[in-house]
Amino acid sequence: MKPRGIRRSIPVLACVAVLMIFISFPARAAERKPVAVKKGDKCAVCGMFVEKYKEWMAQVIFTDGTAAFFDGPKDMFRYYLNVPRYTPARKQSDIEVMYVTEYYSARMMNVKDVFFVQGSDVYGPMGTELVPVETEARAKEFLKDHKGKKILGFGGVTSEDVR
After folding, report:
1. What's the pLDDT at 31?
2. Which of 40, 73, 75, 126 could form a disulfide with 130 if both were Cys (CB 3.0 to 4.6 A apart)?
3. What is the pLDDT of residue 10?
4. What percent of the chain has pLDDT over 90?
5. In what order do the strands lie in the sheet with 150-152?
6. Which residues contact 24 (CB under 8 A, 6 or more apart)?
7. pLDDT tens across 121-130, in order?
8. pLDDT digits over 42-86, tens only?
9. Are 58 and 139 in contact (CB under 8 A)?
């Protein structure tokens, strides 16, 4: 038979254990960092080598930790909007996070944290490009300075926008 004090502390210890699991969960669910690109990595849409286009590079990281690389945001969105066409064994829900290279800072940023300017006079490796800009104010400034047509958020990019 257990001493009375230990029996009372078991529910408290169980609560503490559950609380510790919940507290530590966000640390394990932290966003994956961008993957380092190697010299031979190719764009999953057009087949261009992406390493030489660092200022336009984009990537999709899957839940299993593997990645697909792109020579620009436009090809990344083509892929995202029709994953099975490019990788039949995958679906959009297999994607954990997507990164693009922000225009002004040249930092890899989550696609959900930038705005995309469409139709500007700034061209990427494949011609017209969706130019990623960190803030809406900077995107408006870029649109004006570079004769852009519209500003899109991540959820607003359609197949028509990436034709």
Report:
1. 82
2. 73
3. 53
4. 79
5. 131-133, 115-118, 150-152
6. none
7. 999 998 999 9
8. 999 999 999 999 999 999 999 999 999 999 999 999 999 999 999
9. no
Tokens of 66: 């593997």
Q: Say if residues 99 and 59 touch (Cβ distance below 8 Å).
A: yes
Return d(Cα 105, Cα 131) in angstroms, integer: 12
The residue with greater pLDDT, 32 or 95, is 95
Spatial contact of 70 and 79, defined as CB atoms under 8 Å apart: yes
Q: Phi and psi for 14 in degrees, rounded to 5?
A: -65, -45
- Tokens representing 33 are 């960092």
pLDDT for residue 144 is more than 90: yes
* Residue from 162, 134, 4 nearest 73 by CA: 162
Indicate the residue type of 130. L
Global pTM value: 0.80
